[in-house]
Amino acid sequence: NKLYGVSKWGSGYFNIDEDGCITVEPCKDGARIRIIDVIEEAKKRGLRLPLHIRFQDILQDRVKRINEAFAQAIEEAGYKGQYQGVYPVKVNQMREVVETLMDAGEAYGLGIEAGSKPELLLALSIHKNGNRLLLCNGYKDDEFIRFALMGCKIGKKVVVVAEKLEEIKGLIELSKEMGVKPYIGIRIKLATRSSGKWATSSGEAAKFGLSTVDLLEAMNLLEQAGLKECVTLLHFHVGSQIPDIQVITRCVREGARFYAKLVRMGCPISYIDVGGGLGVDYDGSRSTVASSANYSLREYANTIVYGIMDICDEEKVEHPTIVSESGRALVAHHSMIAVEAFGRIAKLNTIKNLVVPKNAPKVVRDILEVKETVDAGHYDEAFHDLVFYRQQAMSLFDLGYLDLQSRAVVESLSWEILAEISRHYEGKARMSEEMKELVAGLKDQYLLNFSVFRSLPDSWALGQLFPMTPLTRLNEEPTIKGTIADITCDSDGKVDTFIGDGEDQDQREYLWLHDLNDKPYYVGIFLTGAYQDTLGDMHNLFGRMDEAHIVLDSDEEAGWYIDEIIEGDTIREVLEENEYAIAELIRSIKTQVEQAIKKDVVKPNEGMKILADYEAGLKRYTYLQVDSRRRL
Ligand code: PLP
């Protein structure tokens, strides 16, 4: 546990049992599921790895916890308004996720937020209760606004949140044209800036929101149009995953001040929408680094409730209903990916029982001397000498003066020397950048059957950290410091930065892994429920993974069951998605096989089998079939 920090990032949902297996406890009530059991059951049901596993109960638990945190803060503070959450559908638009959230949120009036026309059409249909909010964020054209007003017409509380002045003008015109009284929201730009990887939504240069000048202009226009009393909601959002609670404190106070001033100007605003930003502690460090958050859910709710109350009391205005648009904190925990290792590229690739002959080239003998320097404990000197002679050896090889055997000896000795230097400096701060770079090359690469581009786009694009652990053997000391390579033909398809131990290390350049044996070795990638599902792309044509949805059930012998299975993309599907006509592909192969038969390159029987295999191949999974007995 210490090596992987499970109890820190797991937020009570994940743990390790006495057999060294990762378990999940979706409701934190003692009912635990071993992830390896889920994998075995899924395999029995015909699912393959990589496998996307969703725990529906975690989604429900998240809804409950966020709502209860606000309810408690409101009660303790004596706040006179209420709390109503809204789920920003962009964070995970998958049907099962949205439906589960909407069901779980029924009791709390959880609304939905749409940021585009497709999301709005989805939200209009899925949002069935007139008291829940349906918020429209994002840039809007007339058609977008018309759809929103259509929702109002059929009795929904659809709030059009103006991101810029032109939208106010459109809204005035179209609400008149359609004869609908709109619910108007206004997004303001705060001067408070966020930090972390998603900070660009904040500050005066942000892409969305009205400046104070535009806000006053908007109020004038609405007053002239007789729509001032339709201004229902004030919104701000300074970015996702805000790591520092101080930023939230400042935003809330600045935003509440805007609210109070507008109310005092005669705007009947009844909702203050604090946007998203509630962080997930991906690395378990409870700090202000980008992959973490230095506050708890309870502290977050208190900060918002007390912050708004303070300003409202000071300004003597009513306490509004508090709305938050937390998506990440609702959905991140419920989903994980199980991947299988199918090989390891061992970097410490040395020649066993190496004997360097006396007549070996001088550069080889020089490097052998470096080995003696390092053995004598002169690490810095040995490192610099090694860099020098290694470079010399490579130049000699390039010019044709060094044979392959000598080059192999140079490489072998170099790895041995570097390994000793690295062992000496392990955990010590005194290591030059140059040294770090060379030593980093010593880590073994574990080859995992998945695509970073498909499954962890934020890791590839933003360097976001996701917790990873082997799913079994955690009662066995891992011996290998590895990095991860995926199966895309792209050197970017890797993970080489991992979460630290949640104590004195923010992050590490390696993951502790076990030596591979002839049994399958599974690694879990956790907290992947937010943004990753639909942001992922089809690089190398790796498609959607097989998916298993797990539900707790005390009536079941295991205490849980697979509620739903969604088969991942077949090769045929990813090709079709890229506009290939399958019939044409088959026809083309058929012609080529027929020609090969004509030229007597293959026998007719063989030709027919090739054709049949091709067609069968189109129905296969896009990922590798791993045979753990025959690893690379
Ligand atoms: N609301 C708006 C307007 C957003 O842009 C976002 C995402 O950036 C969210 C809500 C969701 O925020 P989070 O990812 O912090 O839950």
Automatic annotation (TrEMBL):
Keywords: Decarboxylase, Lyase, Magnesium, Metal-binding, Polyamine biosynthesis, Pyridoxal phosphate, Spermidine biosynthesis. Its cofactor is pyridoxal 5'-phosphate; Mg(2+). It holds the Pfam family Orn_Arg_deC_N. Residues 571-624 form the Arginine decarboxylase C-terminal helical domain. Its EC number is 4.1.1.19. InterPro entries: Ala_racemase/Decarboxylase_C, Arg_decarb_HB, Arg_decarbox_C, Arg_decrbxlase, De-COase2_CS, De-COase2_N, De-COase2_pyr-phos_BS, Orn/DAP/Arg_de-COase. Residues 65-332 form the Orn/DAP/Arg decarboxylase 2 N-terminal domain. Residues 358-438 form the Arginine decarboxylase helical bundle domain. The keyword Magnesium applies. The keyword Lyase applies. One of its GO terms (biological process) is putrescine biosynthetic process from arginine. The active site is at residue 489. GO terms for molecular function: arginine decarboxylase activity; metal ion binding. The modification N6-(pyridoxal phosphate)lysine is found at residue 90. Catalyzes the biosynthesis of agmatine from arginine. This is Arginine decarboxylase. It comes from Gracilinema caldarium (strain ATCC 51460 / DSM 7334 / H1).
